[in-house]
Design a protein that fits this description.
Strand content: 5-15%
Helix content: 40-55%
Bound molecules: ligand F0G
Number of helices: 15
Order of helices and strands: HEHEHEHEHEHEHHEHEHHEHHEHH
Structural class: alpha/beta
Shape: globular
């Protein structure tokens, strides 16, 4: 299997800091579909054209795999034997999988009781050492930085520059499909690595002449965890979107730069708005995402109500993680299952036939 498009490193080698000695650790990530959201676009009106980049279809079901293939490949190239991260769940799942593939040890620090079930299951089954701290994500990240700065352990959070390099390939794929950049790029913001990576990707594509114009970056934080919007560290962030429950993002300044250089915005959406978008994506488009991912669409709905978008604008929304990561939430937000007798008459009666 050495096809040119096998995994994001092979596909975009010329844009990435790898060489012939880099051992590529890949699960064939990337190449996720860009889906035209026809029903959502009609629902929004104003001739908007919304496309959804379904990153939940990566090997560990989130966008993290794009960055992790780079971080783990470079860790191996440098002779590292152990990788480590703090995580609200998806980074830990991805790190654990790529460590398994690359035959490295993996240690993950998670906030106790605050990550979705599917993500925990992943980190465990891939064989990582999973440590749950009695603290939040921001505290977990500080501990991981202290350890990785002082011991022979490689940091694979998005402060590792190779993570951002890998994640920028999402922007390349969008432009390759559309033949240009979208006018607006909507994205959830947590630790702020992904908005940083996409902006870097778009700028690089423009610089080498692959696209003529850059998108406006529009990022959305959860209202109870919106440090960038409020301009202050949030000590005790709160949101049902556990993936973005972060009070002191590592790439804070770079997210602000993406917003300001592109002429975009970073705003907040409430948990109610996130859940409304979460259900709408499933009901209108047949796309199941985790709540944090729905923040990008909650933001588009909100900005559309404010008449922010010009008529006919193209918007790409990044759906960062799969809905099956957090089955508890899906069940909580749905109507109850109806239990019936194993009798045809009973079923027909309920079907109204
Ligand atoms: N969406 C999902 C599903 C995520 O898991 C994350 C971050 C984000 C959005 C926000 O991306 O941090 O680059 O701004 N998850 C990290 C983790 C923090 O540990 O899995 P960001």
């Amino acid at each position: 299997m050495n096809r040119e498009d096998y995994g994001v490193i092979n596909k975009y080698r010329g844009f990435l800091p790898v060489n012939e000695n880099t051992p590529i650790v890949t699960l064939n990530e990337g190449n996720t579909p860009l889906i035209f959201a026809s029903n959502l676009s009609s629902y929004l009106g104003n001739d908007l054209k919304v496309c959804l980049k379904y990153e939940g279809l990566n090997p560990t079901a989130s966008f993290k795999d794009r960055g992790m293939t780079m971080a783990v490949s470079k860790a191996k190239e440098e002779g590292s034997q152990v990788i480590m991260c703090a995580s609200t769940g998806n980074t830990s799942a991805s790190a654990a999988a790529y460590a398994a593939k690359g035959k490295l040890k993996c240690v993950v620090l998670i906030p106790q009781g605050a990550i979705a079930l599917g993500k925990l299951a992943q980190a465990l089954i891939y064989g990582a050492l999973v440590l749950a701290i009695k603290g939040n994500f921001d505290e977990a990240l500080s501990l991981v930085l202290e350890i990785t700065n002082n011991y022979p352990v490689t940091l694979v959070n998005s402060l590792n520059p190779f993570r951002i390099e890998g994640q920028k390939t999402g922007a390349f794929e969008i432009c390759d499909v559309l033949g240009e950049a979208p006018e607006y790029h909507a994205i959830p913001v947590g630790n702020a690595g992904n908005i940083t990576a996409y902006w870097m990707g778009y700028k690089e594509y423009k610089k080498c002449g692959k696209i003529d114009a850059l998108p406006k970056m529009i990022g959305f934080q959860a209202a109870g965890a919106a440090p960038i919007v409020e301009g202050r560290i949030i000590e005790d962030p709160k949101t049902i979107a556990t993936a973005i429950k972060i009070g002191n993002p590592a790439s804070w300044k770079r997210a602000e730069a993406a917003r300001d250089e592109s002429g975009g915005v970073i705003e907040k959406v409430t948990d109610e708005e996130i859940l409304e978008a979460y259900k709408l994506l499933a009901n209108l488009e047949g796309i199941f995402v985790e709540p944090a991912s729905a923040a990008s669409i909650a933001g588009v709905i909100k900005k559309n109500k404010e008449s922010y978008f010009p008529k006919g604008a193209t918007i790409v929304g990044i759906l960062t993680g799969h809905g099956l990561k957090d089955p508890d939430r899906a069940i909580k937000e749905s109507k109850e299952v109806t239990t019936v007798l194993a009798k045809k008459e009973e079923i027909l009666r309920i079907m109204g036939l």
